Amino acid sequence: MEKILIIEDEEKLARFIELELVHEGYEVFKASDGKDGLSLFKARPFDLVLLDIMLPGISGIEVLRRIRQESDTPVILLTARDSVHDKVTGLDLGADDYVTKPFAIEELLARIRAILRKQKKNVLRFKDLVLDFNKREVYQKGDLIDLTKTEFEILYHLLLNKGMVLTREQLLQKVWGYDYLGETNTVDVYIRYLRAKIEEPYNEKVIQTVRGVGYIIKE
């Protein structure tokens, strides 16, 4: 279940958004000011933040700036109709989108779905394995795993196509390119490298072999 943090001081609006998001199947947390919002954000991972610009105490712009110092979590700004400067500043600081008040809840939900769909392609998970495509980082049970570029690309394509068998030829084309002239057993060698890093030290089975065909990651 995806977790969304709402940082909004208008209680009725925050509650309305919360009810709609819960109805859509999201897990929702709320804060009514910037200080509490930052504390909640640092306490647990979130998939997306809805951030009001006009907050008491710490402004939404400052909250965004602090979030971006440590995280790429998607942020949608909730802005007043005439706050053009704040919108531009927010986007420059790394906000992913903004919605102008008053807004239709259907528009907000659509923007949330669009950002989370994009995010799913960039952050891929399997059990305790996490691959962040933007940061080019892989974690297993919380440990940062040192992968080569080729190992990372193979794992990325297997995770991106989770539940589907990728043949050795498909992996060669995706990772090495269509003009690769080497042997298909090159893929097998790199799969062994990957298993030695993400499976064996953690007693985990991640990549399954489909004999005579290729490889798959599946539940």
Please give a structural write-up:
The chain is α/β, with parallel strands linked by helices and 219 residues long. Strands 2-1-3-4-5 form a 5-stranded parallel beta sheet, with helices on both faces. A 4-stranded antiparallel beta sheet has the order 6-7-8-9. Strands 10-12-11 form a 3-stranded antiparallel beta sheet. The model has no long low-confidence stretch (mean pLDDT 91).
Order of helices and strands: EHEHEHEHEHEEEEHEHHEE
What is the mean pLDDT? Answer: 91
Largest sheet: 5 strands, parallel
Helix content percent band: 40-55%
Distance between the termini: 17 Å
Instruction: Please give the number of β-strands.
Output: 12
Strand residues, percent: 15-25%
Return residue spans where pLDDT drops below 50 for at least 5 consecutive residues. Answer: none
Structural class based on helices, strands and sheet pairing: alpha/beta
Order of strands across the widest beta sheet?
Answer: 2-1-3-4-5
Shape: elongated
Summarize the topology.
Elements: E1 3-7, H1 11-23, E2 27-31, H2 34-43, E3 48-52, H3 60-68, E4 75-79, H4 84-92, E5 97-100, H5 105-122, E6 123-126, E7 129-132, E8 137-140, E9 143-145, H6 149-160, E10 166-167, H7 168-176, H8 185-198, E11 208-210, E12 214-216
Parallel strand pairs: 1-2, 1-3, 3-4, 4-5
Antiparallel strand pairs: 6-7, 7-8, 8-9, 10-12, 11-12
